[in-house]
Specification:
Layout lengths: L15 E9 L3 H12 L4 E4 L13 E2 L1 H9 L3 H7 L8 E5 L6 E6 L5 H10 L5 E2 L2 H14 L3 E3 L2 E8 L4 E7 L5 E11 L6 H6 L3 E16 L3 H4 L6 E4 L12 E7 L3 E8 L10 H12 L7 E15 L3 E2 L2 E3 L5 E2 L7 H20 L9 H23 L2 H6 L8 H10 L5 H15 L2 H4 L2 H5 L40 E4 L2 E4 L9 E6 L3 H9 L4 E6 L11 H5 L7 E4 L5 E5 L6 H13 L3
Helix pairs in contact: 1-5, 1-9, 9-10, 16-18
Length: 591
C-alpha cells in the first residue's frame, strides 16, 4: 500500500523581486559596481540582456588607478595572473605594415625609463593589458561569490521611481515574460546606447557618430614581426588609413603574439561596409603585409567614434556609470578604467546611505566628482585621434594622392639633403608628441575632486608644477588621491594605500597626533586609525611619507573609503574632536 502523500500546497509567487541595488549591465562598470557593493555587504542584482559576458577583447589598457581599485577589492592578483605585463606593452610602433618599413616608435605605457620611475613612485601597482573578455569574468565571478545575484538574458525595459525606491520592468528573453524588480537604487551601466540614461533624461553634451570604425578579431602567429619590439599597439600608415577610424590603421595585440584585433576606419556618411570574411581578411593582410602567414578571422563588427558626455550622472534614485555617461574612442585606453572608477566612487556612498550612516545628499557628490572626469577623458581621447594627423603631415600623406605617391613620400625621408632632413625631424617630432596618448600619467592619476564630500582646508591650490596630463603630482590636499609611500609594519612592507579604503574611513596621523586618534575613536562611524612614526605600528624608514604627507607629525588626514583625502589639518589641534566631527557632518550630512 503506497504511503500517504501530503496535500500539495500552493506557494504564492511574487511578481516583484526585491533588492537594495539593481545594476543594469555586466560590463566593467556594472561588474565592478556589483563587486564593490557585495564586498561592502550591500544586496544587489545584476541583469544583462546578453547570454554571457564579453566575447571580444574590446577595452584592454588597465592603468595604475584601476589596479589600485582592484587591489582594494581583492582581485588585483587575479588580473595580474591573466594580463599581458607592462614590459610587453610599450614599444608603440608606427609602420607601413607589420612586415613593412618602420617609421618610428614611442616608449609607451610607463616603459620610458623616466616615466617608469614616475610609475614606481606613484603607486604600489603596475599597469597591464587585460582584455575585457578576460576582465569581466574576474569581476563578475568575485561579485557572485560575495553575494551578487546575476541574471543573464534579462532585458531592462523601463523604470519608474518614487520617494522610496525604483521599480524596473525587465523581460526574461528566454521565457519571453516580463516581471518587476524593486530596488532602492538603480545603476545604469548599459553601455554607449544606454536606455537607462535615456529613460532617466540625463542631459548630454557633444555628439555621437563622428567617425566610423571596424574591429576585426583574428588569429595569426606574428612573432617574427612583433616579439623583437613588443607592444600593445602597432600603428599602420597606409592608403585609406585617414578615412574615419581613430587616426590610422591599428593592429592591437590581444595575446602575445598570436591573438590580434585590427581597427580600421570607414566613411561614416556612406555607412558601414559589408563585413564579409573576405573583406576582413583583405584588411588584415593589408596591415600585416605578409600574405604567407595563415590568418583566421574570428569576428568583425562596425562601430562609431563618439564624443559625448553626460552633464549629470543621476536623476533621483537612478545613477549611471561607464559608457552610459562617457562615450569616446579607445585612444589613451581610458574607457574601462574610468568605468571601474565611476563604480568605485559610487558604491561606498550607496553603502553608507543604505545603512543610514549618511544622508542621501552624499550621493549628489557622485556627479560633482565624476562628471568632470568623464568630460576630460572624452575630450582627451578624441584629441588623441586628431594628434595622429601630424604624423601623416610629416609624410605629406593627408592630401588626396595615389598609394604610389604615399610610398614615394615615405621613401623620401631616406634621401640626403635639407628637405629630407626636415622631413625626418618633423616625423620624429610628430611621433614623439603621441606621448599625450601613450604616456598620459597625469590623466590617469591627477584627479582632483571638488564636492560636498570634500572639506577644503583653506589653503590656496598650488596647481601643477608640470603638464598635468603627462605628469602625476602627488598631493594630500582634500580632494586628491592619498599619496603612495612605502612604509613598514613589523616585517611587512606596505603602501600607505594599503592602510586605507577597505570600505571605511581612515585617519592618518603621527607622533603627537593622539588627540586625533581619540577623536576618531569617539565617532559613531567606524574610523580606522593609522599612526606613522618611530616606534609606532607603522614606520616610515625611507622618509617618503614625511616628504609626501604635507602635514606635521601631529597633523591628520581623513581618507574616504575610495582612498581620496576628505579632510586635512596640518598640525595638532586641541579641538580635534570638534574639527573631526564637523568634517564628518559636512561630508555625511545630518543623521
Amino acid at each position: 500500500m503506497p504511503a500517504p502523500t501530503s496535500p500539495r500546497r500552493s506557494i504564492p509567487v511574487s511578481t516583484v523581486v526585491e533588492t537594495d541595488v539593481l545594476i543594469v549591465g555586466s560590463g566593467p562598470a556594472g561588474a565592478s559596481a556589483a563587486l564593490a557593493l557585495s564586498t561592502y555587504g550591500v544586496p544587489n542584482i545584476v541583469v544583462t540582456r546578453y547570454a554571457g559576458l564579453a566575447d571580444t577583447p574590446r577595452a584592454h589598457i588597465t592603468n595604475q588607478r584601476t589596479m589600485e581599485v582592484l587591489r582594494d577589492l581583492g582581485v588585483e592578483q587575479d588580473v595580474v595572473a591573466q594580463a599581458t605585463p607592462q614590459h610587453l606593452m610599450g614599444n608603440t610602433t608606427f609602420c607601413t605594415s607589420l612586415a613593412g618599413e618602420e617609421l618610428g616608435r614611442v616608449r609607451s605605457w610607463g616603459n620610458d625609463p623616466l616615466v617608469q620611475a614616475a610609475h614606481e613612485l606613484a603607486s604600489p601597482t603596475r599597469m597591464c593589458d587585460m582584455p575585457q573578455h578576460l576582465m569581466e569574468p574576474v569581476l563578475v565571478n568575485a561579485a557572485v561569490a560575495r553575494g551578487t545575484r546575476l541574471r543573464f538574458e534579462t532585458e531592462y525595459l523601463s523604470h519608474s521611481q518614487d520617494a522610496d525606491g525604483v521599480t524596473a520592468t525587465v523581460r526574461d528573453r528566454l521565457r519571453g515574460d516580463t516581471y518587476e524588480i524593486r530596488a532602492k537604487y538603480l545603476i545604469g551601466a548599459d553601455g554607449g546606447r544606454s536606455k537607462v540614461a535615456a529613460d532617466a533624461g540625463l542631459p548630454m553634451g557633444g555628439q555621437m557618430g563622428v567617425a566610423g570604425s571596424i574591429n576585426i578579431v583574428f588569429e595569426a602567429d606574428l612573432t617574427r614581426y612583433t616579439a623583437h619590439r613588443p607592444s600593445t599597439l602597432y600603428w599602420v600608415l597606409a592608403p585609406g588609413a585617414t578615412v574615419g577610424g581613430i587616426g590610422a590603421g591599428l593592429v592591437r595585440c590581444v595575446r602575445p603574439w598570436t591573438e590580434w584585433l585590427i581597427v580600421w576606419g570607414y566613411d561614416v556618411t556612406a555607412g558601414a561596409p559589408d563585413l564579409t570574411t573576405e573583406y576582413a581578411e583583405e584588411i588584415v593582410r593589408g596591415l600585416v603585409g605578409d600574405d604567407r602567414i595563415p590568418v583566421t578571422v574570428k569576428s568583425s563588427s562596425a562601430w562609431t567614434v563618439n564624443e559625448m558626455y553626460a552633464e549629470r550622472y543621476s536623476n533621483g534614485r537612478v545613477f549611471c556609470a561607464g559608457d552610459a555617461v562617457h562615450r569616446h574612442p579607445p585612444s589613451n585606453g581610458l574607457g574601462s578604467n574610468t568605468s571601474i572608477q565611476d563604480a568605485y566612487n559610487l558604491a561606498w556612498k550607496l553603502k553608507l546611505v543604505l545603512d543610514g550612516t549618511a544622508h542621501p545628499r552624499l550621493l549628489d557628490s557622485y556627479t560633482a566628482e565624476r562628471a568632470p572626469v568623464g568630460r576630460q577623458i572624452v575630450t582627451r581621447a578624441n584629441q588623441s585621434i586628431r594628434e595622429t594627423a601630424p604624423v601623416f603631415e610629416a609624410l605629406d600623406g593627408l592630401s588626396p594622392q595615389t598609394p604610389e605617391q604615399l610610398w614615394a613620400n615615405i621613401a623620401a625621408r631616406k634621401d640626403t639633403g635639407e628637405a629630407a632632413e626636415k622631413q625626418r625631424a618633423a616625423l620624429r617630432e610628430a611621433i614623439a608628441f603621441k606621448v599625450y596618448e601613450f604616456n598620459a600619467h597625469g590623466v590617469d592619476l591627477n584627479q582632483r575632486y571638488a564636492s560636498d564630500a570634500i572639506v577644503p582646508d583653506g589653503t590656496p591650490d598650488p596647481g601643477f608644477a608640470r603638464d598635468p596630463e603627462l605628469h602625476h603630482q602627488p598631493s594630500s590636499r582634500p580632494g586628491a588621491r592619498l599619496p603612495h609611500a612605502w612604509i613598514t609594519s613589523g616585517t611587512r612592507t606596505l603602501s600607505t594605500l594599503d592602510t586605507v579604503a577597505q570600505g571605511r574611513f581612515t585617519l592618518l596621523t603621527g607622533i603627537g597626533g593622539e588627540a586625533w586618534v581619540r577623536a576618531a575613536e569617539a565617532q559613531e562611524l567606524e574610523i580606522a586609525t593609522v599612526v606613522i612614526g618611530p616606534g609606532q605600528e607603522y614606520e616610515d624608514p625611507y622618509g617618503d611619507w614625511a616628504r609626501l604627507s604635507e602635514i606635521s607629525d601631529a597633523g591628520a588626514l581623513l581618507v574616504r573609503p575610495d582612498g581620496f583625502v576628505a579632510f586635512r589639518h596640518a598640525s595638532a589641534a586641541p579641538d580635534a574632536g570638534e574639527l573631526l566631527a564637523d568634517a564628518l557632518r559636512r561630508i555625511l550630512g545630518p543623521a
